[in-house]
Amino acid sequence: MPRIRTLLISTLACALLAGAAGAAQALASQGQVTYFEAAADLLKPNTRHHTLEQLQHLGVKALRIELKWSEVAPGPTSATKPSFEAANPGSYDWGAYAPVLAEAKQLGWPVLLTVTAPAPRWATSNGKAPYVTRPDAKDFEEFMTAVAREFGSEVSIYAIWNEPNEPVFLMPQWHANGTPASGYIYRGLYEAGYAGLQAAGLAHPRVLFGETAPAGYDTVSTHREGSKALHHPVAPLAFMREALCLNAAYKKAGSCSQLQMAGYAHHAYTIAVPPYYKPPGRDNVMVGALSRLSNALNLAANAHAIPGGVPIYLTEFGVQSLPNKYLGVSAAKQAEYDAIAEHIAYDNPRVAAFSQYLLKDDPVGGAEPEASFQTGLEYFNGSPKPLYFGWPIPLTVTKQHRGVALWGLVRPTTGATKVTVLVRAKGSKRFRTLRTVETNSRGYWSFNSSTPGEYWRVRWTSPEHVKYEGPPIRAF
Prior knowledge:
By secondary structure, the chain is of the alpha/beta class. The chain has two domains: 387 residues, Glycosidases (TIM Barrel, Alpha-Beta Barrel), CATH 3.20.20; 84 residues, Macroglobulin (MG2) domain (Immunoglobulin-like). The protein contains twelve helices and 15 strands. An eight-stranded parallel sheet has the order 1-8-7-6-5-4-3-2. Helix 6 packs across helix 7 and helix 7 packs across helix 9. The protein is globular.
């Protein structure tokens, strides 16, 4: 998850002045996967079973799991590397990760495994906490070999490093002259990790590149801010260019070879405004500005830095709700905005995956309040938000010249089904049936309506007679 609150708040004033524009219609993605990340609940033995039951009820069909190198490595806080066979999975304590991946395999859920920081102390260049400074590429290569040998049959796709353009996960982010440094370091880790997977027997491993946070800086100045400047995140597209050895015009700036990748992973978080918002800074990519990332990937392919047509995986996303006083919207808006963001992703044929980060909110505040996220379907105390009821059957209502366009998904279904759409007229206290519509085989549906209304909602009953009812949704 990103620690970008300060940067995002600085753009909030601009956002509040920006009008929400309708999402551009395009040929929709035909095979979009939705990953769910609930590590805090799945990795605890006492909550795992209940969490898996909840996820099945919600219609989850794929998981994202972050595997932290230091959590499983021997001697993680030792300054000296212990003597062990680093490429042997038997050398590691896989802890709670092993049963979670085994459960996912049993359920038939594909797993995206993001192998990430912190590194063991002995694998960093300075040996200082939080152990993210220049992790040793050779050590990481051997670790990735062990990971693939342990979980090769349980992982569908890998990603290397979480948010490497954020200082909390990788350092240094900048050279002293104010130019980005983290992209080059990340490239070395990516190439090493890819080689490690090949050494484990995966001739053509499916690996995602990037996993970038949505916002940052193109340059910094130590003259203005001192050493504080070196702890800013790098803007995702500036980071990508450096990692791919491209200059600002997306032309080769070095002799780097083409990188192989199954997709570009990105975390398109936004701020407390409707998701259509486009942030300032051409190198920042929130969900309303995905075209910036598509264009950058096209330019990188034209420069032969990456293969052509690399898909986008939005591997971490969520809408913050109150009580997050910095970036949170009301719980009702959270359900509306989350569905709109998913619709934006669905309408983009380049997007191969969307995601939901958190089942249950982090506690508010704590030792690291800037890292506390309230993107869950439940509050920290376990009580459900409107999003808990809306996520299985998301609905968007888009204003048109005459009437509205409705779009939705029945996530728990395993084939075509029928869903009831209801409308409540302005001034009325009751919903009435607008239409019963049949979904496609993947659960998606859409239609236009000229019937006026103030709120809309969806009802669906599963073949097992489980009833679902989404929250009231407004038109945007």
